[in-house]
Amino acid sequence: MLTVRGLKKRFGNTDALRSVDLHVEEGEIHGLVGLNGSGKTTLLNVLFGSAVISATGGYGGEVLLNERPVYLSSPARAIGCGIGMVHQEFALIPSMTVTENVTIRRERVFAPTAILGRDLALMNAPANRRRASSVLERLGVRLDPSLRVMDLTVNMRQFVEIAREIDRDDLRVLLLDEPTSALNYGEVQALFASLRSLASRGVSLIFVSHRLEEITTLCHAVTVLRDGEVAGCFTGPAYDVDALAECMIGHHVTRAQRQGASRKGSEALRLEGFSVDMPGERINGIDLTVSRGEILGLAGPSGHGRPAFGYGIMGMYPTSGRVFVDRDHIAPLNALAMISRGLFFIPEDRRAAGLLTDHSIMENIVFAAMQCKGAFLNTFPFRPLALEDRRHAHRFAEECVERFGIRCTGVHQKVSELSGGNQQKVCIARALAMNPGILMVSEPTRGVDIAAKETILHIFLDLHRGAGTTLVISSSELDELMRMCDRIAVIHEGRIFDVLDAEATETEFALAFSGERRVHG
Question: What is the pTM of this model?
Fold first, then answer.
């Protein structure tokens, strides 16, 4: 179905791809893995004709579909060839509804007149809603198709993006860039069932994921990229997670692991009857206390309220109930009030809410601390006259780049040019510049490779040990929470169903996830 020969791509003086070969059979699910910056997304962008490729001189080498050469000069050309793509950073129209995003360019219309034609025919809105709901149900998702995409959580947006592509009748090759990064176990299994069904109908898939267990479970064959080159190819059952990791990295990775229980102090954060009106992720009257110096995990199925915790506390959605920081009642809830009390939040959607993508690494790291705390400013006697202390900001940003291993050309490089894992490290560096007493983070390792994932988790543990920072970590990765946290609160249907020790069994967590065990006492 798809053959790539000697594919090359340069960005300025950097070789993103060096003579890459790839062969995908009809109906094959082909895994593509590698560290951040290894060339995976660049390869997918070439195959989808993305504008960033043509705007930077195109590509070299040869691409063949059904053994016929094609030059993929634009997304329109790729779509015309039967290629679809599910993007890691979503290609959705936020102001449009779920229905409009899923059916775009394939809308059902009432019978067009011979004079006006299809372009001026009336939309058949009920038929389009039914079509969108049907394809989402194939993915195991129940979602109101009239909701706007901007009001959805990250995982629901992911399903909308996938639904748009698998709804195509002319689909021959589907490219999936980290489609499971925001999904929990049950949602991943539902997605895998849909992908296997697609493959059984002859559609070929290229599946990119940093979750190597998913690769070994789903894929018929795997290609490993390292520094823009093919480092290895694996087929059939003759590969496992360890073999892939070693080929990707070239050395063993030390897994982050909390050593012993945290020393807990006084009350740091308390919620009483706390509710958040976040579309698709509502929280309904939860009570919870977090101790100073604790690492608390938040887990639970998607659509049950887990992502709303951080957004609600920062006042980004309507809330009710009471929130206390160091026993002081905070009202009204807003980001500035929380930051002034030493609380900071790293959201899961880093591009939309966590980064200034058109600005440099240095500006992203110091901006919040400069605006909210007066850090990185000169020493003029009057604050309104203070200017940025660029030398101090530059030095701090360089220290963060070295400490966190941010792969970049320098602190003045635009954040938009970094890989997902390096963007996440910039988000963490920005949070540390705030010197928070309480740090809330949602999906800290979403879309990052195995090496970057462990680096990020080590950073949080070092922050906890060194500064005694209280951490509240919301994640769909239960394994990470069990390695990092003292306690894990499981949210089900907008309420806390159970608070378990990290040493609890997977069976106990499974019961809590399904709502079969309530809080005792």
Answer: 0.66
